[in-house]
Amino acid sequence: MAATETTRMNPDPGAARPDLNQEKSLLSRIWQHRALYIAISPFYLLFAVFGLFPIGFSLYLAFHKWDGIGIMTYNGLNNFKYLLTDVEFWQAVGNTFMIWIYSTIPMLFFALIIAFLLHAPFVKFKTLFRVGYFLPNVTSIVAVAIIFGALFANNYGFLNYLLQSVGLPVVEWLNAPWGIKVAISSMVVWRWTGYNAVIYLAGLQSIPNTLYEAAKIDGASGIQSFFRITIPMLRPVILFTVITSTIGGMQLFTEPQILVGNDGGAGAAGMTIVLYLYRESFINNYFGYGAAVGWGMFLIIALFSIVNWKLVQGKSS
């Protein structure tokens, strides 16, 4: 009994040695491969400076009131409370969703059709077409916005010229809320259709040809094969493009900013969430509230990502 009590009162000092040995072993391995860690360190240093620090500082800033120059004042949850009741913010959210709907549905539809045609065996010069469809994605967004501004211009726009040439009345695209949304959506469709078509094409190439051959033997037409084989097999790829399109659609900035300016145009119809964040932060100098808007946008994107992930899980289960 005395020996047992002595053991309980004086535990073995070497009991903690495995953790210390593991830590020393980890440090020794890191030091042993220090050349490799030094080689990859620039990426992590740049990510910490230009990635982690801005994220952390924006969260810190969201709880403060600051004009960018003066003293930063703690504001608590007031920025987020005002965000929930801010009519302009929710209008920007509504505009962003409407533009996303106007652009995503035709964009993914045309991308799927283009990918199906490029995958067809009768199409020649496929590589040339793939490069041509992908070029809009690498074109400068500012240049695209300027060109589309000329196309949709109220007085001397090319679209109005075509309407007048066939005897139709002129449409003031950039003076009507619906026209502004159509113009911005057209830029998104033009720029991202080819990108999504390339993704769909990669998905089509992974579908076994034996399925199409069996369907052809059973007498299925091309349209029936498209809706009964292609679409079901591409469902994970389609859901992926919907997720990426949602994330990109929630972050629209350059297109409306160049096309209609910082105020969002007529009736603020082009005021997206990011454009509203930019205006509040860098035009009105409400940096604390602008940070709160950014985190509100993050929550919206996260919510949609979770919903799409649940859809993917439900389809795959």
Automatic annotation (TrEMBL):
Source superkingdom: Bacteria
CDD domains, alphabetized: TM_PBP2 (cd06261)
Primary subcellular site in the record, as a coarse category: membrane
Subcellular location: Cell membrane
Keywords: Cell membrane, Membrane, Transmembrane, Transmembrane helix, Transport
Bilayer-spanning residue ranges: 35-63, 97-119, 131-153, 233-253, 259-279, 286-307
Cross-referenced Pfam families: BPD_transp_1
Gene3D superfamilies listed in its UniProt record: MetI-like
Occurrences of domain ABC transmembrane type-1 (ranges): 93-308
Membrane topology: Multi-pass membrane protein
PANTHER family named among the record's database cross-references: ABC TRANSPORTER PERMEASE PROTEIN, INNER MEMBRANE ABC TRANSPORTER PERMEASE PROTEIN YCJO
Family to which this protein belongs: Belongs to the binding-protein-dependent transport system permease family.
Name of the featured protein: Cellobiose transport system permease protein
Organism from which the protein derives: Paenibacillus tundrae
Lineage, highest ranks first: Bacteria, Bacillati, Bacillota, Bacilli, Bacillales
